[in-house]
Amino acid sequence: MLSFLKKYILFKFQDPAEQAIIDLIKEKENLTFGEIIKDLNLSSSRGSQIINELKSKGVISNKIDPPYFKLAQQ
Fold first, then answer.
1. Dihedral of alpha carbons 14, 20, 21, 23, sign
2. Is the bond leading into 66 cis (omega within 30 degrees of zero)?
3. What pLDDT score does 33 carry?
4. Residue 1 pLDDT more than 60?
5. Fewer CB within 10 A of the end CB, N or C, for the chain?
6. What is the pLDDT of residue 37?
7. How far is CA 11 from CA 34, 59, 72, in A?
8. Could you give the count of Cα atoms lying within 13 Å of 37 in the half-sphere of its Cβ?
9. Residue 2 φ/ψ, nearest 5 degrees
10. Span 3-71: which CATH code?
11. Contact 70, 37 (CB under 8 A)
12. Does residue 8 have a pLDDT over 60?
């Protein structure tokens, strides 16, 4: 397991949807926005809100080409 992931394994987010996104990304590593909201049955607006919050906290990052989200390396 990558060393930067260790801090996310024990850290729990208050919002269950945030935790679900982190757990999903840990499991599958690289996901598109569409895959995240489909797998977690989130609306696109709610998914976008949560993803933007996680990005602003520095927990996840994304690449534009290809458009994948992953845990941020810190």
1. positive
2. yes
3. 92
4. no
5. N
6. 95
7. 25, 11, 14
8. 12
9. -65, 140
10. 1.10.10.10
11. no
12. no
Give me 8's structure tokens: 């996310």
User: What is the SS3 string spanning the chain?
Assistant: CCHHHHHHHHCCCCCHHHHHHHHHHHHHCCECHHHHHHHHCCCHHHHHHHHHHHHHCCCEEECCCCCCEEECCC
Domain ranges of the chain: 3-71
> Between these two residues, 3 and 37, which has the higher pLDDT value?
37
Query: For residue 8, which amino acid is it?
Result: Y
pLDDT in tens, 16-69: 999 999 999 989 888 899 999 999 999 999 999 999 999 988 888 887 777 778
